[in-house]
Amino acid sequence: MANVQEEWLEKAISDGHIDYVEYNNFANPINIGVGGFGKVFKYEWKDCELTVALKCLKVDTNINEKIIKGFIDEVFICL
How many domains does the chain fold into? Predict the structure, then answer.
């Protein structure tokens, strides 16, 4: 992951804006689409017995604050 993306993601997690869950807590991936920020998969969350959507973010060295804000807006639309 590009440094800017890593730093932003780590800060968002530490500030409590994004919950971090270990990847191995999910099973049975099904590709459901591609968005502007990466691929979207349907997974079963093993601990909670829930079906969830996970987005695998693209590595982008040209990421900027506007792009990050767009991603945050997209996340909040889903909540």
Answer: 1
